[in-house]
Amino acid sequence: MANNTALISVMCPDRVGLVADIAGCLFDLGGNLNDTTFAVLGGGAEFTSVCELPADVSFAEVERSLRNIATLADAEVSVTLFGLAPLHDETARITHHLTLRGGNRPGLIARLSEVFVQFRANVVRLAAERVPGMGTDEYAIEIAVRIPDESAPACLATIGNTAGELGLSFGYRTH
Q: How many CB atoms lie within 10 A of CB 157?
């Protein structure tokens, strides 16, 4: 049986109802959403999904159907073959949710990410934004990460120290 798993990507101006419109369209086509993300990026919005489609549904048909949604009239839509495993393995199982907040500066995410490499931790999701209404320097970062059990205490302490050096508050919870 041929692989009919698609990577679906939609980028457009942010509007209420986008997720409902896109997910509803894919459901109507018989699609089954696997890993899926949605994010507001500046004034835009991005929906990305690994979607298993019925064998008789073409990627072109999915793209046409999405483009026919009124809220996606000016969207960039891409439906391509997802040639990797449709489900993630253990290395993408989230063990910790981290929250950092403070002043924005170039290289902030790079510095924090270097710590994860040092402790063989895998970033599963990352969201960073300038916080509206809090001034141009207020920045919030949320990271969902898999940290191996044996290195979790040292990794979290190092992230805390790095955050402190950068003038950020730091908190976490285990998943």
A: 11
